[in-house]
Structure formats: C-alpha cells, structure tokens
Amino acid sequence: MVRVFRMLTMLLVVMFVSSSALAAELRIGDEGAEVTEIQGQLIELGYDVLADGSFGPAMADAIKSFQASRGIKSNGIVDPTTYSALLGRDMPENIGGSSVIVNRILTGAMQYMGVPYIFGGTTPYGFDCSGYVQYVFAQAGISIPRTADVQFEVGTPVSSAELVPGDLVFFETYTYGASHVGIYVGNGDFIHASSNGGVKISSLGSSYYSSHYIGSRRIV
Question: I need a labelling partner for 60 at 20 to 30 A (CA). Which of 1, 82, 110, 119 fits?
Fold first, then answer.
C-alpha cells in the first residue's frame, strides 16, 4: 500500500513538473521572432518600442501599460492571457523554446554565487543544495520538488555524456541515494550550494564528485 501511494505521489509530481515546464511566457531577456511580432503589435497600438526582437525594459513597460488597459495583471510578462489579448490567438505552449528557459535558469543560478550554505535554506540569505536548485528553477517559472532524493525522480534520465547546460546532476554523499544536487553549466562544471563554500562552481571531474556522482536528470 505504501509503495502504491509513493508511486501515485511521484506520478503527480512528474505531471506537475511537466506542466510547469510547458507553461509559456516571454519576459525580459528573451529574444526571437515571437518577441519581434509582439513588438510590432505594440507599435501598431501606439507604444514606444523598437521591433528589434529583444525583450528589454522598454518593452516590459509597454506590456505593463497594455495589461493595465485591459484589466490584466500588470507584471510586464507576456503570458497566455496577455498574448491572446495582443495578437488575438492562443499562445503556443512551446513559445521561445527550452533554450530561453535554460538561459533563465543559468542566468539566475549565477546571481547567487557566494551565498552561504545553510542546512534547510531556501532563500538568497542561505541555501542548501536542493533548496538552491528549487529556488533557481522557480525563478525561471518551473516548480520542482524540495529535496534532492525526490528531484532525482522527476524529469528524464540522461547520461554524463549527454549532459547539456540546465540539467541536474546528483551525488550520493552523506546518505544512501541522491543527497546532493547541482545544475550543470557546461564544460564539465556544475553550480551548487556546497556545505564547503556556499554557492559555487565545481568540476564533475574532481576526484570527490566523480566518485560520488550517481546520475543526471533533464527537466527542460
């Protein structure tokens, strides 16, 4: 009975993460044809923006003004409601592509370099490993579970040879199973909240982490 309950719980977690990862939106820092199209529509509506394909502060301000004029929550983010009001059609679920989301994750992760390690920490005042990963992904609009062992059960398994930036890397440290987690940043490195130095970048090839590495998961 306990096993069945655990399987059902994990199924719900996976479904929740998957739906979160597919949540479409565009915000400051995003680029591409979708941004250009939205800028063109804003220009037609009289807003002072450039159709340069880059979502900057001026575009965010224009979006906020548009949202306020339509009674939409004014946050400067193009979510499905805002997109539909602007362009008159539903927003594609995969707008912007996963590369946009990965960029948000990596950019956000780097912002907290040097934040101290605190066991149980989940805020920029102090993180533990899984609290840090959960927080960074949440800032990018993706909800994942709180602890490393449960994070290890969501997403898609990938081998070390298949790693791409944004993947989660897991280690067996102080207890059996996944007990430490970080975010792969490329070139064999990952960023994590370490009990020895806080948020920092380490190498998967180091003697310690290579011997404790147990696998990776792809969330986006």
Answer: 110
pTM over 0.90, yes/no: no
CATH class of 33-87: mainly alpha
Concerning whether 31 is annotated as a catalytic residue, the answer is no
212 is catalytic: no
The one catalytic residue in 17, 129, 183, 199 is 129
Residue spans of the domains in the chain: they are 33-87, 97-218
- Report DSSP letters for 47-83, one per residue: -----SSB--HHHHHHHHHHHHHTT---SS-B-HHHH
> Looking at the domain that runs over 97-218, which CATH code has it been given?
3.90.1720.10
Catalytic status, residue 180: yes
Residue 16 · residue 8 · CB < 8 Å: no
